[in-house]
């Protein structure tokens, strides 16, 4: 969930800076899998109000939900211009229209172009990622130049758009600060190219005999295009399943991205084709129960039945927290006799959109940052990113948390103030603060306590805690963290739950009981349970 604000002025020295010297970069959402009905969580704007910050523009780096998904909910508070590349602008417009908002604030900027925004000069620098038109932003203000990378990878063969231009980025060196993508910083090596995945898909599909269903993320247009071409070369007709897939393909076609995509066959016509001429591109790789793929696995799809001889290819990775839903989907497919190809049996059929260590080194060799702020990742990803930067002689003194106000000046980076961010969710078509946990007594609460718990699915259908416990009790009465952690780990072992929401439901009352017993005064308690990937052996080593 991304929302960054950049300001120029004396903020942090006690003087109030001019209100209009701020810009916002991205405005994303996350899905709270640990809450009933998995609502959207969006950034809390209270801190900005308290600090008197009102951005004069919203700058979008790319069209992924964790970068644009909250804009239709939060932008009305600002009413400022929104700048985005054509695809992201198209996706945003669709969201605004859905919410009944006017779309004239959304302005299209082409990758490579620049714009002036108050004290800032911004350049959109094209990158490669897993959605077209992703851009880094070079922000120049006063004597500082900051490179906000957004999400990226170094893809020599992105299929849509050009590879990253080393010349463009070398010309920026040295930049004062990189605010950069940490997602894959613990991973050695280099991410796979979309070109490689396309060839692997073509070979794999060539060996399939019956019907083929390929599931991938709708926003990865290069992948969708590659699957379409692989189908065509193997004499198969293409059909789409899934609303988000249809919407994405429609927006992309409008922008001329899929001009050489094979003509589509309506789903209702699939029954007339021989099995070896069928290829379906479907959403639902995360086991979403209502998606077409899950209906196919249950034998409940109105237009197609899968059986022995047919194949389902997962050209996507499991998002942590979805493991059990995906397992259910896969066992349904196996029961039908369908052949499964996934990230475990065929890692060549998917590529990550984020940079591994070799890519980070290459890129930092180009732009030569003096300082790094590692963002976009969990603390262990940020920590790995920071360590890598330090081996390159880049100063990376901070691991920022949401709500940190950070200053860059001649002395480097420093933390000015830390503002805890009480979660806000979208509920009944409005943004509302998520209340703290209900406790044994409903008396007045004293201070707030934030607990973020990272868990990973165990093979036995349970959950185990990993990584550092994120406990911010600075506004509550003191707590013995060691005793709490020991108790928590023991308790987690005894709890079952197929989903994060079930785990949360089981944990909540026990948690409140512990706090009621151990704290002098009960604070408002906010719990977030996050599913994360278990660190691989190479990361731990
Ligand atoms: Zn992202
Ligand atoms: Zn992204």
User: Pairing-aware structural class of the strands and helices?
Assistant: alpha/beta
The CATH superfamily of the largest domain turns out to be Ribonuclease Z/Hydroxyacylglutathione hydrolase-like
In helices, the fraction of residues equals: 25-40%
- The average pLDDT is 90
Instruction: Name every ligand kind in the structure.
Output: zinc ion
State the domain count. Answer: 3
The tally of strands reads 26
Please give the CATH class of the largest domain: Alpha Beta
What CATH architecture of the largest domain do you see? 4-Layer Sandwich
Give a short account of the largest sheet.
6 strands, mixed
Structural account:
This protein has 541 residues and is α/β, with parallel strands linked by helices. The protein folds into 3 domains: 4-189 and 352-418, Metallo-beta-lactamase, Chain A; 194-349, Rossmann fold, CATH 3.40.50; 435-537, Ubiquitin-like (UB roll) (Roll), CATH 3.10.20. Helix content is 28%, strand content 23%. The protein is built from 15 helices and 26 strands. Strands 8-9-10-11-12-18 form a 6-stranded mixed β-sheet, with helices on one face. A 5-stranded mixed β-sheet has the order 1-2-5-6-7, covered by helices on one side. Strands 14-15-13-16-17 form a 5-stranded parallel β-sheet, sandwiched between helices. Helix 6 (194-207) runs parallel beside helix 7 (221-233) and helix 13 packs antiparallel against helix 14 (500-518). The longest helix is centred in the C-terminal third of the chain and has 19 residues, at 500-518. The chain is globular and about 70 Å long. The chain starts with a strand and ends with a helix. The protein binds zinc ion (2 copies).
């Amino acid at each position: 969930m991304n929302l960054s604000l950049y300001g120029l002025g004396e903020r942090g020295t006690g003087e109030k800076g001019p209100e209009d010297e701020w810009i916002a970069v991205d405005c994303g959402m996350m899905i709270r899998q640990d809450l009933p009905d998995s609502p959207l969580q969006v950034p809390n704007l209270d801190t900005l109000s308290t600090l008197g910050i009102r951005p004069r523009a919203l700058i979008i780096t790319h069209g992924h939900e964790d970068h644009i998904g909250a804009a239709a909910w939060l932008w009305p508070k600002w009413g400022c211009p929104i700048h985005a590349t054509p695809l992201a602008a198209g996706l945003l417009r669709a969201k605004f229209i859905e919410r009944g908002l006017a779309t004239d604030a959304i302005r299209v900027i082409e990758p490579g172009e620049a714009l002036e925004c108050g004290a800032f000069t911004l350049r959109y620098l094209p990158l490669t990622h897993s959605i077209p038109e992703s851009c880094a932003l070079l922000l120049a203000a006063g004597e500082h130049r900051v490179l906000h990378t957004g999400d990226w990878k170094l893809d020599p063969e992105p299929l849509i758009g050009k590879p990253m231009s080393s010349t463009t980025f070398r010309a920026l060196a040295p930049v004062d600060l990189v605010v950069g993508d940490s997602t894959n910083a613990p991973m050695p090596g280099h991410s796979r190219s979309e070109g490689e995945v396309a060839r692997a898909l073509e070979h794999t599909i060539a060996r399939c005999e019956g019907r083929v269903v390929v599931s991938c993320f709708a926003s990865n247009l290069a992948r969708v295009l590659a699957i379409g071409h692989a189908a065509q070369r193997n004499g198969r007709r293409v059909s789409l399943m899934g609303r988000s897939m249809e919407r994405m393909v429609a927006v992309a076609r409008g922008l001329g991205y899929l001009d050489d995509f094979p003509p589509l066959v309506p789903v209702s016509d699939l029954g007339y084709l021989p099995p070896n001429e069928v290829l379906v591109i479907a959403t639902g790789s995360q086991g979403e129960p209502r998606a077409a793929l899950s209906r196919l696995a249950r034998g409940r799809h109105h237009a197609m039945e899968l059986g022995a001889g047919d194949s389902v290819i997962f050209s996507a990775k499991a998002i942590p927290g979805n493991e059990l839903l995906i397992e259910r989907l896969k066992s349904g497919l196996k029961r039908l006799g369908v052949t499964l190809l996934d990230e475990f049996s065929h890692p060549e059929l998917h590529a990550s959109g984020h940079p591994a260590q070799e890519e980070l080194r290459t890129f930092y060799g180009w732009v030569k940052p003096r300082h790094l702020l590692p963002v976009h990742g969990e603390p262990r990803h940020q920590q790995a990113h920071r360590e890598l930067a330090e081996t390159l002689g880049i100063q990376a003194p901070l691991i920022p948390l949401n709500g940190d106000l950070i200053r860059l000046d001649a002395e480097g980076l420093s933390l000015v103030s830390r503002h805890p961010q009480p979660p806000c969710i979208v509920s009944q078509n409005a943004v509302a603060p998520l209340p703290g946990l209900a406790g044994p007594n409903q008396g007045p609460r004293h201070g707030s306590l934030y607990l973020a718990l990272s868990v990973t699915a165990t093979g036995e259908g349970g959950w185990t805690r990993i990584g550092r416990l994120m406990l911010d009790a600075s506004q509550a009465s003191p707590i013995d963290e060691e005793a709490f952690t020991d108790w928590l780990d023991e308790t987690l072992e005894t709890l079952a739950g197929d989903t994060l929401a079930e785990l949360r439901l089981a944990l909540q009352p026990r948690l409140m009981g512990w706090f009621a017993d151990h704290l002098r005064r009960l604070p408002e308690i906010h719990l977030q349970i996050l599913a994360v990937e278990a660190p691989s052996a190479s990361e731990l080593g």
